[in-house]
Input
Amino acid sequence: MQSVKVGVLGLGTVGSGTVNVLSRNLQEITGRAGRDIEITRAAVRDLASKTACDTSNIAVTDNAMDIVNDPEIQIIVELIGGTGIAFELVSKAIENGKHVVTANKALIALHGNELFAKAQEKGVTIAFEAAVAGGIPIIKAMREGLAANRIEWLAGIINGTGNFILTEMRDKERDFSDVLEEAQALGYAEADPTFDVEGIDAAHKLTIMASIAFGIPLQFDKAFTEGISLISQEDVKYAGELGYRIKHLGISKKTDKGIELRVHPTLIPHRRLIANVDGVMNAVLIQADAVGPTLYYGAGAGSDATASAVVADIIDIVRALTTDPENRVPHLAFQPDALTDTPILPISEVVTSYYLRVHTEDKPGVLADITRILAEQGISIEAILQKEPEVAGGIIPVIMLTQEIVEKNMDAAITQIEALQSVNDSVMRIRIESLG
Output
């Protein structure tokens, strides 16, 4: 049987890894796919640049559109990133009747609805396992392995950079800015780390997972994002004293009012398995009605790890090349006409517990004022930790854990607390999830 010809757009970290993995494991891959898979063409930005893979049997060009328009290429692997030229190339590939594999979470989160509709019309597949959590096969697990279940909620550590920073802050008592510099030096964070530390990268991935979990269109613009740049060493320490760890989580839940879609720092009980996922590793915890909780753990980035997911997608497409397009696994798990317009809840309507840190003057009546304000908003205190001032009459930190309350009530309480004359700093608020 004739081999399946593949064109790779981008030979950077993941692109080179894809070539290496496919070459190294060719015998196993052929046996699993049922046909030979051959990367015949690849596109790079600069022909003079070196790649971390052997391209001796690959025709390399700096014109990616030439590969997209090559009639012999059946599968396009888009590893350029971003939503500019990548969108143009993927759109053209679909128009040309080619299947697409991509690791581009921004492309899927922002333009997936449009691209999937085009692919459906043309009878081709867009595979995107590598777009979420690197080498962890979370898309396949949710879309196929959990197909019999009603998914209730999911929570994930889905950005390795943020997890590395929080781990270092906890284990080595370092400040955020110090660890961020190291993460950049190690290549974990970009020169502009905004996408990682402010939760945008995680929100792209969460948007995709939520659509698959709950059968809704992709709606990145409605995701709430909050970063970790304001997490201080004292917050990490106090969380530990209270039996919690701080993680930057992507959380999506289906409630009676709608679907929560939020990324933010979160206190998790230290005994939870996901609370012990450290360094640059990723993990996703899913609660489903039939199977209960399942945890998926592994490398969320890296050359070979992400290439593992890319090549697995290529294999899936090759296996299904002769399959009736109407009987392939749907892109977002549900058939296109079964997607629902369930509303995404604004963060103000989310119900959760909270960690609050308030810096107050050391004088009588301050704590009474704070607890009165909380009580007026219907907020009950679960635990309280009050530290001694470093100097008599100085500033003291008061740490409180609250019971569950709707966020808009907490917003109102914080506004009033910050208006107190005895409170001379912004209130630090971190949401708490038991994940039980």
Observations:
- The mean pLDDT is 95.
- The chain has three domains: 4-135+303-338, 143-298, 349-432.
- The first strand starts at residue 4 and ends at 9.
- The CA atoms of residues 156 and 224 lie 15 Å apart.
